[in-house]
Amino acid sequence: MPAPKNLFKQALKEGRAQIGLWQALANAYTVEISAGAGYDWLLLDAEHAPNDVPLLVSQLQAMKGTASHAIIRPPIGETWIIKQMLDIGAQTLLIPMVDSREMAETMVKAVRYPPHGVRGVGAALARASAFNRIPDYLPTANDEICLLLQVESRAGLEALDAIASTEGVDGVFIGPADLAADMGYLGGPGAPEVQAEVEKALAKIQAHGKAAGILIGDLSLAKRYLELGATFVAIGNDVTLLANATTKLLDDFKNAEAAKPPADAKVY
Fold first, then answer.
1. Residue 166: what pLDDT?
2. What is the CATH number assigned to the segment(s) 7-254?
3. How does DSSP assign 32-70, residue by residue?
């Protein structure tokens, strides 16, 4: 029995758009709720969310058996943390702050077992191999790992051709928020200058035969990126959804008028 088939990776290879939602509440309950909504993928964020390895395990468990594919973003692109993310069962990783071919090549090695990489062989202890109950996990695991690299700086854009052409990279994700800040537009990812660079980057990624991705809360921009060929697009995050909904509920209550009893109502 081989490693589980990575259907998300297969979808990217086939050019099928995959719509996702960011998960930053670090809570298995909210992940379970979101996984039932019908998104193609959920991003479990360990870079900017208060996640640790046990919390991520619980969120992966909450998604098991759903139609949503789990992607984990580790806090940093380091081999030691990538090893843990893979061993707990993540098959797709989004590595933040990649800005060179050297780092891209290091990440490729980090997700592969020797002799093609440096991933430690601890599958007998790991959730990834169903605790050694998948007999052919080791020889088949490499093929089912999907490696996505996040480019979010001017240096990253300058090295984009080198990053996107690195063998073993499945997709490149453009981070508009950090890119905007690095370009001098802090808090302004929708600035025309930033958007021009984003669109050029999406085209360049695809020119190298790699899947292009992005996160954007502006739904019209999300549609625009899909039209430009981006195949994995996140359209929001759980924190903003909850924050906006709770604020709106209170505002709606304050602005609502008390219901009046019907004219023929009897008062006792």
1. 98
2. 3.20.20.60
3. HHHHTTT-SEEEEESSSS---HHHHHHHHHHHTTSSPEE
Asked if 233 contacts 216 with a C-beta cutoff of 8 angstroms, the reply is: yes
Are 122 and 174 in contact, with CB atoms under 8 Å apart?
no
Angle (nearest 5°) at CA 251 between 248 and 255: 135
pTM of the model: 0.94
One-letter identity of residue 82: I
The string over 36-75, giving b where at least 16 C-beta atoms fall within 10 Å of a residue's C-beta and e elsewhere, is eeebbbbbbbbbebebeeebbbebbebbeebebbbbbbbe
Catalytic residues: 48
Contact 149, 14 (CB under 8 A): no
Crossing angle, helix 238-255 and helix 28-35, to 10 degrees? 90
Q: Where are the domains of the chain?
A: 7-254
Exposed, middle or buried, 17 (CB in 10 Å: 0-12/13-18/19+)?
middle
The encoded tokens of residue 196 equal: 């021009």
User: How many Å from the N-terminal Cα to the C-terminal Cα in the chain?
Assistant: 73
pLDDT tens figures, 25-74? 999 999 999 999 999 999 999 999 999 999 999 999 999 999 999 999 99
Phi/psi at 201 (5° precision): -65, -40
